[in-house]
Amino acid sequence: MKLGMVGLGKMGGNMAARLRDKGHEVVGYDFDPQVSDVGSLAELVGRLEAPRTVWLMVPAGEPTDSAVEELGGLLDAGDLVIDGGNSHYVKDREHADALKDKGVHYVDAGVSGGVWGRENGYGIMVGGAAEDVARARPVFDALTPDEGGGFVHAGGVGAGHFVKMVHNGIEYGMMQAFAEGFELMQASDIVDDVPGTFDSWREGTVVRSWLLDLLVRALEEDPELEGLRGYAQDSGEGRWTVQAAVDHAVPAPAITAALYARFASRQEDSPAMKVIAALRNQFGGHAVATATDDPVRTPRS
Ligand SMILES: O=C(CO)[C@H](O)[C@H](O)COP(=O)(O)O
């Protein structure tokens, strides 16, 4: 099948390469002329035959919004746009409606697999009309793992990005649990081999998983992670998961705590904990640490 790929970064570039490896013809467009096959979206559309399929793999938010808008002016009735970025599921309905006015079809696709996907295949979760999903099925089949699985048509427009958002929320919780286990074993004076413990858990245990494999890989490179700062960014999916949990009155304490742990990681100091220290001092005369003190760490202090 021939398709256009918009965005040839770490994800889009590797996906285009995997599709080509599997015999598909990909015309790629990127702002970086070094990696782009064409100079503009208009040129990309001109290189495809109707009915066209264009896969967007650009950052969520404004970059995706403007690409959808521009494509709406370039594509014809019967063409198909697939948004494979990490867009908010609420945006999918807006994008689908804007394109529908011109007869252009829309499918949202959550894509998981990171930089390993080119080799291992990706997990693809899609939302949209059955006939649109069926039309792009050869592309989904090429992107998913060779051994099968890794694909779901989760529902109508928005469902693909909704389940990808939940997947990423679960990812937050799982990573936070491994992180806390790491810190606890390191803090104890009873475990001599923390990397070896994680490594042993890769076989036979309840917590064996790809995230655990990746943690072991990181610990092989730096057993105490001394080269890293304890600072973690987020790109929005955890926030959307927590927001969706609030909207549906679904208790999601693990995912919420994992998100808040990332916020805390970005603080040099904790204004909230200053308030705790101030209040303990006010009501009980308890000692405080000043800005220049080394904090005294004792159990339960
Ligand atoms: O989709 C992904 C993995 O499944 C991305 O890596 C995602 O960006 C990770 O989210 P965050 O940056 O918020 O940790």
Q: What keyword list fits this structure?
A:
single chain, 301 residues, alpha/beta, 7 strands, 12% strand, binds ribulose-5-phosphate
Structure description:
The chain is 49% helix and 12% strand. Strands 2-1-3-4-5-6-7 form a 7-stranded mixed beta sheet, with helices on both faces. The mean pLDDT is 96. It is α/β, with parallel strands linked by helices. Helix 9 packs antiparallel against helix 10. It has 13 helices and 7 strands. The site of ribulose-5-phosphate has 9 residues, from helix 8 and helix 11.
Order of helices and strands: EHEHEHEHEHEHHEHHHHHH
Spatial strand sequence of the major β-sheet: 2-1-3-4-5-6-7
Rg on CA atoms, Å: 23 Å
- Characterize the largest beta sheet: strand count, sense, and whether it forms a barrel: 7 strands, mixed
E-strand count:
7
SS-derived structural category: alpha/beta
Residue share in helix: 40-55%
- Small molecules in complex: ribulose-5-phosphate
Terminal Cα span: 64 Å
Indicate the low-confidence ranges by residue numbers: none
Mean pLDDT comes to 96
What fraction of residues sit in β-strands?
Answer: 5-15%
Family: Belongs to the 6-phosphogluconate dehydrogenase family.
Protein name: Decarboxylating 6-phosphogluconate dehydrogenase
Domain 6-phosphogluconate dehydrogenase C-terminal: 160-301
InterPro entries: 3-OH-isobutyrate_DH-rel_CS (IPR002204), 6-PGluconate_DH-like_C_sf (IPR008927), 6DGDH_YqeC (IPR004849), 6PGD_dom2 (IPR013328), 6PGDH_C (IPR006114), 6PGDH_NADP-bd (IPR006115), NAD(P)-bd_dom_sf (IPR036291), Pgluconate_DH (IPR006183)
